[in-house]
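To assess whether the prediction recovers the assembly geometry, we first specified each molecular entity separately, as shown.
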Amino acid sequence: MRPNILDPLFVSITSLAGVGPKVAELIKKIVPADISDREARAGDLIFTLPHSVIDRRNRPGIALAPSGAIVTLEVRIDRHQPPPRGNKSVPYRVYAFDDTGEIALTFFHANTGWLEKAMPVGEDVVVSGRMEWFNGRPSMVHPDHIARVGDTESLPLVEPVYPLTAGLSGKVLRRAIGQALERVPALPEWLNPDVMRRQSFPAFGEALGRIHNPADPIDVLPDSAAWRRLAYDEFLAGQISLALVRATVRRLSGRPLAGDGRLIAALRNALPYKLTQSQTQALAEIDADLQKPERMLRLLQGDVGSGKTVVALLAMARAVEAGGQAALMAPTEILARQHFATIAPLVEKMGLRVAVLTGREKGRERVEILAGLESGAINIVVGTHALFQETVQFRDLALVVVDEQHRFGVHQRLAITAKGDAPDMLVMTATPIPRTLVLSAFGDMDVSRLTEKPAGRQPIRTVTLPLERLDELVGRMRDAVADGQKVYWICPLVEESEEIKLMSAEDRFASLKPVFGDAAGLVHGRMKGAEKDEAMRAFKEGETRILIATTVIEVGVDVPDATIIVIEHAERFGLAQLHQLRGRVGRGAKASTCVLLYKDPLGETAKRRLSVMRETEDGFRISEEDLKLRGEGELLGTRQSGTPGFQVARIETHADLLEIARDDARLLLTRDPDLKSARGQAIRMLLYLFGRDEAVRLLRAG
Ligand SMILES: Nc1ncnc2c1ncn2[C@@H]1O[C@H](COP(=O)(O)OP(=O)(O)OP(=O)(O)O)[C@@H](O)[C@H]1O
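The predicted structure of the complete assembly is given in tokenized form:
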């Protein structure tokens, strides 16, 4: 049970003054937590941090206030000048003065009663807003703030600016956040005193206060001590929660998987190639895990085309050898079928049964597959997440391999393994996540890396070409296809609201069809599953030689003799995505080319992205550059909404804290695995604050 002391933060924001159902819906859109499945709460508002400030500390006399500047003036009200009756186009003016001169405070469509109350004649008030000089006369149109002298509460000299959405005013949001902050109770410190001292962290409440009520604009920078404290809190909550999930998952299991090695040896012999050193190494690591009584939780990370699938296959063979079943879960149906097509011929030769199970297998077929899994007649099953969503029963599921591209959150993923008989688990990822992100996304999962590509691969030549030279490119592609090469032609997804006219894959197909005739194929996400399969099969077998596609082929698709990929509107894709797409070629022994077709004029970041693509094929470097470019975007004022999965932490600014948090979490849990000590109790509060309730629940269950 959540400690009562936190209750004030767990109430709906509609209980805050000024927040009705409509405003609540708007606020829900801007809070950084992922709360699609619940109402926004006061606790979500405290982590809604400002992205900049309005500095109102400039307090010159009226005569010295420069036009256009935000200033704060202390003035005495001289007189009110309402507009002539019925004339709405003339503003209401209030004249005020100080030692240096007179100013007109100007209001359109004014509420007269309110103005008279806020600025009684003869009173001293403080106004803050943008100064404007008209024909040598100072004025301020609709001051942002009007306050009585001495009332600093309602006049923040350094005013935080929050992310907004249409219909939500800054004032309403600030007021709501202010109330949420008042509800933050006095909480025991959960941080390690050493970390606090070394990092000069303020206490939790103080950190929130400094950022939401900044005394100086630097207080709201992500690298301020206050912000870093909150980022550290978030990392710590995340690391502890991951460690708890992991401990629970491990506790559930306890059986070593070992066989006589004959199946694996036979499979290795049947492969048309020799394993790379990294593949052999990864397999050895996996094998060692499988043989241990604890449950395996391992991440297999390898750049595009590095050959993860065969490693997974051999791991599955080990599970089967040991008498169990294995399941491979792919992120898309295309990929599930591709894996099936690769695996089936190999293992069927060894007398094993493999099945594919997606949403598409229906009726009798489905019934038979389900029966085969339940009886154990099927040894290996390949499928999409449908594999686990439905009531699929295994006789003895020993290993789950998840091929994924950040599509499943860590908790979902681990929940999957909590089903069934606590199987071992291998997660494959092609996304070249930098170390720091591995840590945040996967916690202290063990990691095997494929650091080299299979022998005989040639570097991919990457060229950029403006769209105006499309005709020339089409001509060259015609020659390439005539020459027996295979080409992917990628078109960006066209959103319905798109203003710029973009070629959809269908349009592009229509325009290329006359040139390529029957050699042209088309695949996109809105096609039926069977149509997609057919398009992929025809391309793989060479019936079509130029495949016009959307990004449905982005991950995992393996047609080793495809040697050219054209990416249209490459400027619209992120670096990681470009890298994945490019990875569809260069998967065989032949030399490959990637053509990045772009639309002029290119923005700075897009230009940089394309040149990074030309410079390197190294996925790790590309992802580091990606982070850097996003960081720069932030400096230029186009701040992105932070790091996915985090509310306040930003990986590019706070990466150094992540490792400290991980070590801290480990140490804490070694000493106090059930979070029972005083610090452990405080940590529980931290977990609740950052929405890690499920981790706390694990504690009770354990
Ligand atoms: N040791 C090897 N020697 C030669 N070819 C290999 C080797 N291992 C795998 N391959 C081949 O390399 C290609 C890519 O392998 P695979 O599909 O497993 O890549 P991947 O790591 O899953 O990459 P991606 O993430 O891009 O899908 C396949 O055609 C596979 O048959």
